[in-house]
Design a protein that fits this description.
One of its GO terms (cellular component) is cytoplasm. Keywords: Repeat. InterPro entries: DYW_dom, E_motif, PPR_At4g14850-like_plant, PPR_rpt, TPR-like_helical_dom_sf. By secondary structure, this protein is mainly alpha-helical. Among the domains are: 429-482, no CATH class; 491-626, no CATH class. Helices cover 66% and strands 4% of the residues. The protein contains 32 helices and six strands. It has helices spanning 2-25, 29-40, 50-62, 66-75, 83-95, 99-111, 118-131, 134-146, 153-165, 169-178, 184-209, 215-227, 231-244, 251-264, 267-280, 287-299, 303-312, 318-330, 334-347, 352-365, 368-376, 378-382, 388-400, 404-412, 420-432, 436-449, 455-466, 470-482, 513-529, 554-562, 565-576, 593-605, and strands at residues 491-496, 499-504, 583-587, 610-613, 618-622, 625-626. The chain has a six-stranded mixed beta sheet with strand order 2-1-3-4-5-6, with helices on one face. A hairpin with a 4-residue loop joins strand 4 and strand 5. Helix 1 (2-25) runs parallel beside helix 3 and helix 23 packs parallel to helix 25. It starts with a helix and ends in a 6-residue tail after the last strand. It binds one DNA strand through residues 17, 21, 50-51, 54-55, 57-58, 61, 82-91, 117-123, 125-126, 153-162, 164, 183-192, 214-220, 223, 252-253, 255-257, 259.
Length: 632
DNA sequence: TTAGGGTTAG
């Protein structure tokens, strides 16, 4: 009888373990909590029942519930806590955004004389990588060698990944070459590192040398091609992967490829992936894939396609809604964002990202009162503590609209220290509204915070120059020249025939350069007749880095302005795409005032819709006006 | 009866 009861109990415990594992896999925290509650009274969870206890801990960890995981961990008497318990909680901290807590737990674990194994080391490196500075990782590496894990493939893979994430690819390569036995993960970690730090050409050399490849390796390489605008090569590898090597795309792969498309604006590959997903998946597209589809279409400027995907989704989570709202915000469709938000709160609970989208939508659309209202009711109505992103949006919103004092008082009352983005945003507004006093004060703060970042010295000099204080402006420029300042070059890119074409200001590297410049001459002539007046002064505060004009005459300044990267890209678009077709351009920095005015007239003169994604948002030029209504 | 759990690459 007793034997029978014991048998039943152990069977029950095993069933519970399976259930907890399933909850962990599907991040079903609510179900997991209910199961946990139901099991507490059964007496099944005992100190001795290591596996069941660990399954519960793991469930909370996998669902990202740091608090509950910690509670379960703390309830285990110290002498019963084993390596797996410690490692699980460390991983939970590292994944949940508290890597330092994870590392502290490791120190505590060592002091408590708990056995440390290769899994523990993997988590140590995960946490070190998340810290983002090499100092912790190097210490962990030393620890790993001392403890004799140098020949553990898992530990080596994790330490290599940590070095990749810290930007130390040489160290990764050294460990890789010294490894006796390597796994596919070792190769893929290095492949990812080479893509990131040494470029896709070197990555391809390594990819070709791989003794075996799994879908992760294929995805890394294909995404690298997509990110670099090499559509033909990306399609070539996709074909090899699917039709020659017999792999299929799963939802993680699909999402990775779509993210690469979103980043590089490659809607051609993005659409192909969409069609693949529709054909391959029998029931409905996974919610994660559908959300990355919305993000992809939105970032490629196809907001209508994004909205179509959104509308047919049978279920949507908060991330789906956020993707849709952020996409609309980038397009400056503030009214639509606010309207959709009303629908959203009936379906899901908004989170901090939702409000970043809302505040940025208000900012891009000039909806000052609404944005202000949302910001001030964040905590009281929605229980959300304002984040640095919320602050920078609201400062931007108020600053642009000229409420500089209010924006400043929000900054001074921040519960977290303001960063470069927040202060820089108000600084931009000071330039626009010509508030030299506050601007000067902010720049001094910024120069103190980032003494090596010459951007702020440039802004200060521009500001003095605009205020007619040329002596002060010149003295800063002299200092900057002596320091050999190089600015990030402005680059505009455009897809034609599936291939990316990149332009920087005044460059003549394109094969059709001659035709492009002929078109440019014609275009400038035509838009001048239609009212375009070059605005050389805009250069001062535009934040655009399409050239340096100090010490040049008016004509040279104009010439330099005409060959801004986005103007070259639009000329190439005009000569290489069919009449009437929209032209999509991607720019790494913000579009300058002059190009903005020019594009409006180009859209009218050539009867073309021109869509430009700059660093901040989309500008859709049509029949002489822009979707931003010049509010940006 | 014994082993099982926790981890890394997109």
């Amino acid at each position: 009888m007793i034997w029978q009861t014991e048998c039943t109990l152990s069977l029950l415990a095993r069933h519970y373990r399976t259930l907890f594992r399933t909850c962990a896999r599907y991040s079903a925290l609510d179900v997991g909590k209910k199961l946990h509650a139901s099991i507490v009274t059964t007496g099944l969870v005992t100190c001795q029942n290591t596996f069941l206890r660990n399954a519960i801990l793991h469930m909370y960890a996998a669902c990202g519930s740091v608090l509950y995981a910690r509670k379960v961990f703390d309830e285990i008497p110290l002498s019963y806590k084993d390596t797996v318990d410690w490692t699980t909680l460390m991983g939970c901290y590292a994944h949940g955004g508290f890597p330092l807590d994870g590392l502290n737990l490791f120190v505590h674990m060592k002091k408590s004389d708990v056995l440390i194994d290769e899994y523990t080391m993997v988590v140590v490196f995960l946490a070190s990588a998340k810290m983002g500075c090499e100092q912790f990782g190097v210490q962990g590496h030393g620890c790993m060698v001392k403890m004799g894990f140098s020949s553990s493939i898992k530990a080596c893979n994790a330490v290599m990944d940590m070095y990749v994430k810290c930007g130390l690819i040489d160290k990764t390569r050294r460990i890789f070459s010294e490894m006796g036995e390597k796994s596919i993960v070792s190769w893929t970690v290095v492949l990812g590192g080479v893509v990131k730090w040494e470029g896709f050409e070197n990555a391809r050399l390594l990819f070709d040398k791989m003794p075996e490849r799994n879908e992760v390796a294929w995805t890394v390489m294909i995404a690298a091609y997509i990110e670099n605008g090499l559509t033909k090569e990306a399609f070539g590898l996709l074909r090899e992967m699917l039709f020659e090597s017999g792999f299929e795309l799963n939802f993680v792969t699909l999402s990775s490829l779509l993210s690469a498309c979103a980043q590089s604006g490659n809607v051609l590959v993005g659409k192909w992936v969409h069609v693949y997903a529709l054909k391959m998946i029998e029931h409905e597209i996974d919610i994660v894939v559908a959300t990355t589809l919305i993000n992809m279409y939105a970032k490629c400027g196809r907001i209508d396609d994004a909205f179509r995907v959104f509308l047919v989704m049978p279920r949507r989570n908060v991330i789906t809604w956020n993707a849709m709202l952020s996409g609309l915000a980038m397009q400056g469709k503030g009214d639509m964002v606010l309207d959709l938000f009303g629908q959203m709160i009936r379906e899901v609970k908004p989170d901090d990202v939702t409000f970043t989208a809302i505040l940025s939508a208000c900012s891009h659309s000039g909806l000052v009162d609404q944005g202000r209202h949302f910001f001030y009711s964040l905590e009281s109505t929605y229980g959300i503590k304002p984040s640095i992103e919320h602050y920078s949006c609201v400062v931007d919103l108020l600053g642009r609209a000229g409420y500089l004092e209010e924006a400043e008082s929000i900054i001074r009352g921040m519960t977290i220290p303001p960063n470069e983005v927040v202060l820089g945003s108000l600084l931009g507004s000071c330039s626009v509204h010509k508030n030299l006093e506050l601007g000067e004060c902010l720049i001094k703060e910024l120069v103190q915070m980032y003494p090596d970042n010459t951007k702020y010295h440039v802004l200060l000099s521009n500001m003095y120059s605009l205020a007619g204080k040329n002596d002060k402006a010149n003295s800063i420029r002299v200092v900057l020249r002596s320091r050999g300042v190089r600015k990030v070059p402005g680059i505009s890119s455009i897809y034609v025939g599936g291939q990316i074409h990149c332009f920087s200001a005044g460059d003549k590297l394109h094969l059709q350069s001659q035709e492009i410049y002929m078109m440019l001459d014609e275009m400038i002539r035509k838009i001048r007749l239609a009212g375009y007046a070059p605005d050389t002064a805009c250069q001062k505060f535009s934040g655009s880095n399409d050239g340096d004009y100090y010490g040049y005459g008016q004509e040279e300044k104009e010439q330099a302005l005409f060959s801004h990267s986005e103007k070259l890209a639009v000329c190439f678009g005009l000569i290489s795409t069919q009449a009437g077709m929209p032209i999509y351009i991607f720019k790494n920095l913000r579009i300058c005032q002059d190009c903005h005015s020019a594009m409006k007239i180009v859209s009218k003169v050539y009867n073309r819709e021109i869509v430009i994604r700059d660093r901040n948002r989309f500008h859709r030029f049509k029949l002489g006006s822009c979707s931003c209504f010049d509010y940006w």
